[in-house]
Amino acid sequence: MAVAASTETPAFRFEMLWRDERYRSLTIQAIAMIVLMLGLTWLVNNAIENLAALGKTFDFGFLSQPANYDINQQLIDYTSRSSNARAALVGILNTLLVAFLGCVTATIIGIAAGVARLSNNWLVARLMTVYVEAFRNVPLLIWILLTASIVNTSLPSPRDYRGLDTGPVVVTNRGIYIPQPNFGEGSLILLIIFALSIAAIFMVRAWAKRRQESTGEQAPVFLIGLGLLIVPSLIAFFLLGRPISLTLPELAGFNFQGGIQLRDSLIALWVALSLYTGAFIAEIVRAGILSVSKGQSEAAFALGLRPNRAMNLVILPQALRVIIPPLISQFLNLTKNSSLAIAVGYMDATGTLGGITLNQTGREMECILLLMGFYLIVSLSISAVMNLYNNRVRLVER
Amino acid sequence: MNFNKLAIAAGLAGVCVASGAHAATLDDVKARGQLRCGINTGIPGFAFTDSAGNWQGFDVALCKAVAAAIFGEPNVEYVSLTGKTRFTALASGEVDMLSRNTTWTYSRDTDLKLDFAGVNYYDGQGFIVSKELGVASASELDGATICIQTGTTTELNLADYFRANNMSYEPVPIETETEAKEKFLANACDVYTTDASGLAATRSSYPNPGDYMILPEIISKEPLGPAVRHGDSEWGDIVRWSLNALIVAEEKGITAENVKEMASAAGDDPEVNRLLGTEGEYGAMMGLDQDWAVNAIAATGNYGEIFDTFLGPDTEIGLERGLNALYTDGGILYAPPFR
To answer: Hey, which residues 29-68 in chain A have their CB within 8 Å of chain B?
Structure first.
């Protein structure tokens, strides 16, 4: 009788929702969900009511209206008569540009500094410690303002170059001007030849590797590669009658004209973002290297590998598994931090869509929502790409 | 993080959270015991901190006058706002009024849901350049790099002006007067453009004001005035008539010195009597005390006194009254009658 009673499921009673462990967690989750939904409803409802109280509507029609303001750095054609949507696009491209440049240089700086901080050279290691600590522990905005201030106040202004001969690269407090390439007739052929020589370099390297594996002999890959890179393109350049020429920056009126201008705002933002994020990446790289057990490097040295081959062939490939996941979040941080651009007048998405357009049209809600959507999409895309890479390098488990 | 983003976020959060309490601003202000007034982040003459750390200036005086009209004394909490953050701050209820050299335009009045309570300074956009450049006119500015305060009407005027004259320029957007000064003095921009009054004001703060000149062209109309939120006309009336009271006071020769005396007994001029509360129940019509205008004038002086103290020829800024003289003196300052 007692046995039969224990296998029988007791009838569900209402108080079991909080008395019985089996149901309690479900109850708590349900309550939390309801509270969350109520909170959200209240917020959204309040926003709608207050917009109505202010007499404001919620619509995106302003995006097709003319923006009426000018933007200094335009990667696509834009005039003040273009639409607000196009102004936003100009800003978005500027954000992507500085984010891309920043991620590349931050990675290079970070890896170099991370490796150097582990160096046996006392001076190098200490200098890197100073760099990492200085940049990690001071707010990014301060670094951006400082860099901008240095560029603006310590470099010569364009009018200081009046009457002077300027070289191909001119450094001013309004930016750095570099020569602009002009692609004339036949430049396509030249570019194809250049691409082919790069392909040839990879083929030579693959051939050298195969030969080394079968015969043990090493080929002078570097010299052959260098020759392949330069010689065919150089010959083609002269044979085709110098199809690519350079326009040098020249002082005309108030500013230098011709050439490509890397604006002071771009430089300030780029340098500050790279150095700041580079400091974090350096620590990630150092942690990654330290996570590879000492036996690995000792084994590599015992096999007779020189230190930098041991690093490239043994340690870094294993360290990458640890490095990449936090590296992704640093790239995301850098991209989001680029929204500090407005502090130095760099017209990124926050400066155009979330700044001037928002202000001139008074569409706070719409602009901020669009801006949030944009940063979300960019971040998720970076994340997705880096996760793909992470899947390739991570430890294959059987 | 960036303070602008914070301000915008705060504004948004304000729109989200504050429960539609925009209806009776006067009650809110009275309950708080203080007027929250949005002013510039700092521009000589209009809004600046004196050596004691108190806000002073032409725009600040209007805040004081409104607060004095309500409380009898100038209980003001100043909120300094950039060109970008000002409207969001007003719309979200962070400030009760803006007195921040803000241009009255059609779309701000209608689409941005502001109400302008009059004009306290008739201005126009101008350019300042270094004399070293040898530029005599704005038409010679083709190709120049121009510093400009972002989020202002000047940004739009500039784009229109250069397009109409078929010239090119490189805009350098900046947030505050201080930033503009740093960039302009370092020659990171050739030209700085804002309202002509602002140019005169900012030039007075340069190390060598004589090295810089304001170009003769005025490229826009910039009627600057106090703004309030749309939809609370009673509150708008208080700001509007506080400003008008200051202008009428100048017209009638009422000053900070003699206002108490003139208000002690009814005089010969019925308009003065109505303004100073010695005749009729004019304060009650706005929900204020009978001596509201007396307090406002006593706190700041009349329009002319305020102008002379902060902007006039005897100050470093040295602006002439020009358009801002009374209509009786050849200007266009004209307050509706107190009746």
So the answer is: 43, 46-47, 49-51, 53-56, 68
**How many angstroms separate the CA of residue A356 from the nearest CA in chain B?**
5
Nearest-by-CA chain A residue for B174 = A345
A41 with A89, same domain?
no
Task: Output the CA angle B146-B149-B150, nearest 5 degrees.
Answer: 110
Same-domain check for residues A381 and A282: yes
Coil, helix or strand for A182? Answer: strand
Model pLDDT, residue B292: 94
- Percentage of chain A beyond pLDDT 70 is 96
Range of the domain at A124: 84-137+264-393
Just give the CATH number of B125-220: 3.40.190.10
- Give the separation between CA B180 and CA B173, rounded to whole angstroms: 9
- State whether A253 and B159 contact (CB < 8 Å): no
Same domain, A335 and A268: yes
Query: Among candidates B241, B247, B254, which has minimal Cα distance to B324?
Result: B247
What pLDDT digit, counting tens, does each position of B245-300 carry? 999 999 999 999 999 999 988 889 999 999 999 988 899 999 999 999 999 999 99
| A330 and A389, same domain (yes or no) | yes
- Tell me whether residue A167 is in a domain: no
Question: Any idea which fold B3-122+224-329 has?
Answer: D-Maltodextrin-Binding Protein; domain 2 (3.40.190)
Positive or negative CA dihedral for A228, A229, A231, A237?
positive
Q: What is the pLDDT of residues A187-221, one digit of tens each?
A: 888 888 889 988 988 898 888 888 888 888 877 88
Q: A336 CB near a chain B CB, below 8 Å?
A: no
Cβ separation B143–A255 shorter than 8 A: yes
pTM: 0.79
Nearest CB partner across the interface for B186, out of A49, A141, A153: A153
Closest by Cα among B154, B137, B320, B143 to B217: B137
A-facing residues of B in 17-76 (CB < 8 A) are 17-20, 22
Closest Cβ–Cβ partner in B15, B151, B172 for A356: B151
Backbone angles phi, psi at A212, to 5 degrees: -65, -40
Q: Which residues of A touch B161 (CB under 8 A)?
A: none
Per-position b or e across B281-299, b if 16+ CB within 10 A of its CB: ebbeebbbbebbbbbbbbb
For chain A, the average pLDDT equals: 87
Which chain A residues touch B170 with a CB distance below 8 Å?
72, 174, 255
What residue ranges do the domains of chain B occupy?
3-122+224-329, 125-220
Residue A187, min C-alpha distance to chain B (Å): 31
In this complex, is the C-beta atom of B151 within 8 Å of any C-beta atom belonging to chain A?
yes
Q: What is d(CA A89, CA A99) in angstroms, rounded to the nearest whole number?
A: 15
- Chains A–B, number of C-beta pairs less than 8 Å apart: 151
Are the C-beta atoms of residues B337 and B272 closer than 8 Å to each other?
no
- A369: closest CA of chain B, how far (Å): 11
Quick: pLDDT tens for B93-140: 999 999 998 999 998 898 888 999 999 999 999 999 999 888 888 888
For the segment A115-160, what is each residue's pLDDT rounded down to a tens digit? 899 888 999 999 999 999 999 999 999 999 999 999 988 888 888 8
* pLDDT band of A99, cuts 50, 70, 90: very high
